[in-house]
Amino acid sequence: MTEHTLLVSLVLGLIEGLTEFIPVSSTGHLLLAGHFLGFESAGKTFEVVIQLGAVLAILTVYSAKLVGVFTAAPHDPAARRFILSVLVAFLPAVVVGVLAHDFIKTVLFETPKLIAVMLILGGLVLLVIDRIAPAPRHDDAMRLPLGIAFAIGVIQCLAMIPGVSRSGATIVGALSLGASRRAAAEFSFFLSMPTMAGAFAYDLYKSRHMLDAGAVNEIIVGFIAAFVAAVLVVRWLLGYVSRNGFAVFGWWRIIVGSVALVALSVA
After folding, report:
1. Distances (CA, A) of 39 to 5, 35, 61, 219
2. S-S: 28 plus which of 86, 134, 163, 197, CB 3.0-4.6 Å?
3. Roughly what angle, to the nearest 10 degrees, separates helices 26-37 and 112-132?
4. Which residues pair with residue 143 across a beta bridge?
């Protein structure tokens, strides 16, 4: 691994960790950054696999709560219902992800202009929903009705278009369905665990023949950077959005998408 590759892997890992849990599209940022930095990974495996660092970050931050839920599940209906709500929300991504995996990776991931446009459109949607979302009826992410959890999971599937944002789709869906800002962000955290772990495992299986020693080294660097950055973001985000909402992320998406479109048009 050259020093340049090491630095690029570090930068991309930081981008992943800083953007995975905020509604700005970590995949979109990673693919655009990789495009302009001249970074290529076989089958886009690097971009997906380093998300495991972010998964472990959320598991670390929520470890005590998760242990409590699974310990209580055998005798606590509320704990079992929460686990079921996350699984129900996860199911649509399993079906769509398996059926559309090859198209997503070989077509959508290779279209920088699409990513930039989706960043802008997603930013506009986020600004509108943050302003006109219905009054919250659900303040606890661990007590969302199963129907709402499933609907959020269906909406999450839009994030398979790079630039849409998994956290953005789930947060917008939850806000539209009556969740508070904090509950929307926290349920997005919980849903990210099986979704990202599943994407990691399936993509690693599909791309196993493309991996080599160099790719493994790049992934390790990106993984560590993503883990550290994601821990910091998760600890900060809930308090921020409870006080300030999501508008700043909408404007950020619009700015990044617009700059990327201009850069792509003159490249």
Report:
1. 8, 6, 31, 13
2. 163
3. 150
4. none
Please check whether residue 134 is in contact with residue 176, taking contact to mean a CB–CB distance below 8 angstroms: yes
What sign results for the dihedral spanned by CA atoms 155, 157, 160, 166? positive
pLDDT in tens, 168-218: 999 999 999 999 999 999 999 999 999 888 877 877 777 667 665 566 778
Rounded Cα gap, residues 122 and 125, in angstroms:
5
- The residues near 79 (Cβ < 8 Å, ≥ 6 apart) are 69, 70, 72, 73
Other C-beta atoms lying within 10 Å of the C-beta of residue 130? 21
The pTM for the full model equals 0.87
The H or E element that residue 138 is part of is none
Contact 144, 179 (CB under 8 A): yes
Would you say 118 and 169 are in contact if contact means Cβ atoms under 8 Å apart?
A: no
Reported as a single tens digit per residue, the pLDDT across 11-44 is 999 999 999 899 998 888 888 888 888 887 655 6
Amino acid in the structure at residue 155: I
Residue 98 amino acid letter: V
Please give the Cα distance from 167 to 241 (Å, whole number).
Answer: 13
Distance CA 163, CA 114 (A): 8
User: Beta partners for 179?
Assistant: 138
Q: Which residues pair with 138 in a beta bridge?
A: 179
* Cβ neighbours of 38 (radius 10 Å): 8
Q: Give the number of other CB atoms < 10 A from CB of residue 259.
A: 13
Domains of the chain: which residue ranges? Answer: 3-266
